[in-house]
Amino acid sequence: MDRYFSPDRSLKNMVIPLALVILLTLTPAHAQSGPDAPPPHLGYGIHLAPNTTLDRNLVNALGMDWIKIYDLAQSKDFPDKHILYRMDLTWPTDWEQFKLAVASRAHDLAGLHIDAVEIGNEPNLVNEWTRGPNAWEYVQMLRVAYTAIKSVNPNIIVVSAGLAPTLTTPDHHAINDLDFAEEMLDNGAAQWFDAFGYHPYGYNLPPEADPSKNELVFRRTERIEALLAAHNVYKQVWLTEFGWLRDPAEDGVNCKDTDPDFTGFAWLRVSGEQQANYLVRAFQYADKNWPWVGPMFVWNLNWQQQTWLSTCNNQRWFALLKSNGEPTVAYRKLQALERHYSDYLPHLDLHADTMTANVSMACLHRVPLGTFTVDNTGYPLATEISISAVNGIDPPFADVSPKQARVGDKVTVFANPIGLTQPGQYTIYVNVKATANNKLITQNIEGYVVVSAGDAGC
To answer: Averaged over 93-113, what is the pLDDT?
Structure first.
């Protein structure tokens, strides 16, 4: 958010077959608050400024279980926190050297308790992608970085660079985040990230503001998720930056709209009370309505302590600490926020086609029932999924291929009715099983073989 803002504010029916989308979700016993309540999925995060003196007690007292850091040395101060590290990379002139450099940085992470790495920052803005925003270029860099990091540590979570919510400007120094994301997906980006990074700033509107009536709002995130789903990408969206800008006048600071570090941001000002309420309500809204969202990182805790920034630099006024280190109203209200911490388990989705087949008693034979794809809208752990048919002593007998899968893989289900002695509808079962964090996730799904008395299907 320390960058650019556009000043434009105008801005199956089911007969016999299996349902087309089957949701497989492990709901821990402690989270079962109702039949429609999603399991806990949020992580609660805060940005920590590098190169500043920070009282760790202020971080711990805030109650966040995640921190986002820019300096790896900060990780040693918070051994009990989950950590997202931003790895800034630039377009390489030598790709082999680039691979080696990223792998070396991944090795540096191995001795630290870094859970996730965000590859770059807001590449849809010229401030961050100085060559001029280019989704194809970013995907090429993401692909190489993802491969290099996973070759060193396959368990680390790779998050794509959080896109800035903005509109395309005439000079193309800013590219509409929805357009940029779509071009990323069209260029195969989904296979090179474990979670999609996004920066849904609220601008000057409350977090509940309708994204169909307002372009630049917190709930623009819903349009990002819809875009991912339209491309059959079912992965968590991580809100790696979000926040509201507190009016400097509340601290007796007169930041003129023409100030070069404040221009373009002046219209974002809200009161400290509004900032506090909006942040709290943003977490509450995501907790209730967005089961596909993972960790959310408030921008920021302590950029007021970045002494080299000008007094009216916009980054200061998103902070939860004042320039004298005193907590703001937003800090206090976030501190009191009721949290539903994620269980940090996968929430697997099985996207199936019509799982049924018709055969005749006159020519019983092995038939494909259909396919399903295994996706994950929960915590993006590297976990292998076991697929097995559930068979008794009598036909029909089921089989699957492959029997081991990973997220994104397609599984084919077969049924062998040979040996049946009368027509009818027969049910087959397939078991999908995974283990994550020493917990078993398992579910049976159904398919059907319809056997007719005539010779139809021969």
So the answer is: 91
The pTM of this model reads: 0.86
Contacts of 412 (CB under 8 A, 6+ apart): 368, 370, 371, 400, 401
What Å distances lie between residue 144 and 92, 100, 115, 218, CA to CA? 11, 10, 20, 31
The H or E element containing residue 241 is strand 237-242
**Cβ neighbour number for residue 408 with a 10 Å cutoff:** 15
Residue with tokens 């395309």: 168
Q: Which residue has the tokens 């509109």?
A: 167
How far the first Cα of the chain sits from its last, in Å, is: 64
pLDDT band with cut points at 50, 70 and 90 for residue 41: very high
3-state secondary structure of 334: helix
Write the DSSP assignment of 417-454 as a string of letters.
-TT--S-EEEEEEEEEEEEETTEEEEEEEEEEEEEESS
pLDDT classification of 38: cutoffs 50, 70, 90: low
Is residue 7 scored above 50 in pLDDT?
no
Write the DSSP symbol of residue 29: G
What tokens does 206 get?
């409350």
Phi, psi of 40 (to 5 degrees): -55, 135
* Apex 383 CA angle, 382 and 388, nearest 5: 155
> Distance (Å, rounded) from C-alpha 152 to C-alpha 230?
32
Tokens representing 4 are 């650019």
* Of the candidate ranges 90-99, 319-328, 345-354, 426-435, the one whose mean pLDDT is the lowest: 345-354
Q: What is the amino acid identity at position 104?
A: S
